[in-house]
């Protein structure tokens, strides 16, 4: 039997039925009308943000990376609890505006911004995190054409990486950001061109569970920002420290020690380099805020045996929850936290694989794991589905269409 990932804290059961925010999943599915269904818990997101704020030094802004989960009702919740939003396209700009979020709280990062995206963002007053000198010139040109003062920041490709991160986004040759040594000259160029200088964005990686690695990267980030600011000769209004805070997905993963990260950052802030004395700091997080607050529910529609193995075949699959199938940035396939939601907490009785309804061997939500004996009609819960689920999966693949989503 292969182990399953750790089920996040905060879930309970009543009479063997998993509950999300005190609602039994059977009632949630009935209210939604059908499976597959993503359910996001407002209370868990709010509690996570509160825990983060309590652990971090006062005065650090929290930004939400919209790409982790752009579901509009969730964004409306986030807009009450976070300070800013980071978007990656004009499509996400339209989504945040539809959720009533003030574009003045929004920054726009991402390599390959089209002219029409830059125009929409500059018109709305969004801060652009510039990813190249060429993009800087395009943004300045468009701003002149449409007669706005562009709010411009620079995304730095740092000369270090976030160790142990699931996805490295800095260090060495990268399509993201501008190599650190070229940044001071570009800062001077932006200011000379009359732009509103908004600061630096330094994002070194994602999905790190090691507090030491995050502490080290934050230390390097502050040093680098101070050095670039000194060389540019201009005050730094804002420093986006990136994020990279991970969540446990797989067997053996331990939660990030948030208190250790907060204490180390507080210690750095009392001895901040003079260049950063007036700088507003922010963290930019996606999965850490919402990942564990989401559950993907799918129904078993067939149960079969083949060569001695049991397959629980569901009406969902990788077209909604690609990451759980191991096909989204993981090298070795390991099991996510998965449970039979209508026999929650029941003892393990058999080894089974939970598969989706797609005609591909890739479509496996749990591989040879231990479950109570499940029957057709039972609901399966895939946990850690609040980030990079619905919006990061190929919903059109094989034509089953997208899953339903619900905020409780
Ligand atoms: C994807 C991304 C994030 C969010 O990453 P998480 O691992 O979900 O926290 C934050 N900032 C940038 C620039 C990103 O590309």
Q: What hetero molecules are bound to the protein chains?
A: pyridoxal-5'-phosphate
Distance, first to last CA = 34 Å
What do the pLDDT scores average to? 96
Number of domains: 2
- CATH architecture term of the largest domain: Alpha-Beta Barrel
Structural description of this entry:
The chain has 408 residues and is an alpha/beta fold. It has 2 domains: 12-40 and 292-407, Lyase, Ornithine Decarboxylase, Chain A, domain 1; 70-285, Alpha-Beta Barrel (TIM Barrel). 28% of the residues lie in helices and 25% in strands. The chain has helices at residues 25-32, 42-55, 72-81, 90-98, 115-124, 133-146, 183-192, 211-232, 258-270, 287-290, and strands spanning 12-14, 17-20, 23-24, 37-40, 61-65, 84-87, 106-108, 127-130, 151-157, 167-168, 178-179, 196-202, 205-206, 238-240, 280-285, 294-306, 309-314, 338-340, 350-355, 364-371, 379-382, 404-407. The strands form 4 sheets. Strands 4, 16, 17, 18, 19, 20, 21 and 22 form an 8-stranded mixed sheet that branches. Strand 14, helix 9 and strand 15 form a beta-alpha-beta unit. Helix 8 (211-232) packs parallel to helix 9. The longest helix is centred in the middle third of the chain and has 22 residues, at 211-232. 48% of the residues are buried.
How are the elements arranged and paired?
Blueprint: E1 12-14, E2 17-20, E3 23-24, H1 25-32, E4 37-40, H2 42-55, E5 61-65, H3 72-81, E6 84-87, H4 90-98, E7 106-108, H5 115-124, E8 127-130, H6 133-146, E9 151-157, E10 167-168, E11 178-179, H7 183-192, E12 196-202, E13 205-206, H8 211-232, E14 238-240, H9 258-270, E15 280-285, H10 287-290, E16 294-306, E17 309-314, E18 338-340, E19 350-355, E20 364-371, E21 379-382, E22 404-407
Parallel strand pairs: 4-22, 5-6, 5-15, 6-7, 7-8, 8-9, 9-11, 9-12, 12-14, 14-15, 17-19
Antiparallel strand pairs: 1-2, 2-3, 4-16, 10-13, 16-17, 16-21, 18-21, 19-20
Helix pairs in contact: 2-3, 5-6, 7-8, 8-9
Bound molecules: pyridoxal-5'-phosphate.
């Amino acid at each position: 039997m292969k182990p399953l990932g750790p089920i996040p804290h905060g879930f309970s059961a009543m009479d063997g039925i998993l509950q999300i925010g005190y609602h039994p999943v059977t009632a949630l599915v009935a209210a939604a009308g059908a499976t597959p269904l993503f359910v996001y818990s407002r209370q868990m997101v709010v509690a996570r943000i509160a825990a983060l704020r309590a652990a971090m030094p006062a005065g650090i802004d929290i930004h939400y990376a919209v790409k982790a989960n752009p579901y509009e009702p969730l964004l409306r919740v986030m807009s009450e609890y976070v300070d800013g939003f980071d978007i990656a396209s004009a499509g996400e700009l339209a989504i945040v505006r539809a959720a009533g979020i003030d574009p003045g709280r929004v920054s726009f990062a991402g390599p390959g911004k089209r002219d029409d995206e830059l125009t929409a963002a500059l018109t709305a007053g969004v801060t652009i995190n510039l990813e190249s000198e060429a993009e800087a010139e395009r943004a300045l040109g468009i701003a002149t054409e449409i007669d706005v003062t562009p709010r411009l920041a620079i995304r730095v490709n740092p000369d270090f990486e976030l160790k142990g991160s699931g996805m490295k986004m800095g260090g060495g040759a990268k399509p993201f950001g501008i190599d650190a040594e070229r940044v001071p000259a570009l800062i001077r160029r932006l200011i000379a061109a009359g732009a509103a200088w908004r600061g630096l964005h330094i994002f070194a990686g994602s999905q790190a569970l090691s507090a030491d690695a995050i502490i080290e990267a934050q230390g390097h980030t502050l040093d680098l920002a101070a050095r670039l600011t000194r060389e540019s000769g201009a005050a730094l209004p804002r420093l986006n420290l990136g994020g990279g805070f991970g969540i446990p997905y797989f067997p053996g993963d331990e939660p990030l020690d948030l208190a250790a990260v907060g204490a180390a950052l507080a210690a750095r802030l009392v001895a901040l380099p003079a260049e950063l004395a007036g700088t507003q700091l922010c963290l930019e997080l996606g999965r850490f805020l919402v990942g564990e607050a989401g559950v993907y529910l799918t129904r078993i529609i067939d149960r079969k045996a083949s060569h001695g193995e049991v397959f629980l075949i569901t009406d969902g699959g990788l077209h909604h929850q690609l990451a759980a199938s191991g096909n989204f940035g993981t090298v070795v396939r390991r099991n996510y936290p998965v449970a039979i939601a209508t026999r929650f907490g029941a003892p393990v009785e058999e080894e089974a694989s939970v598969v989706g309804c797609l005609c591909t061997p890739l479509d496996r939500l749990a591989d040879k794991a231990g479950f109570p004996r499940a029957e057709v009609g039972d609901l399966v819960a895939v946990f850690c589905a609040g980030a990079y689920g619905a919006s990061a999966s190929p919903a059109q693949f094989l034509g089953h269409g997208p899953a339903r989503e619900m905020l409780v």
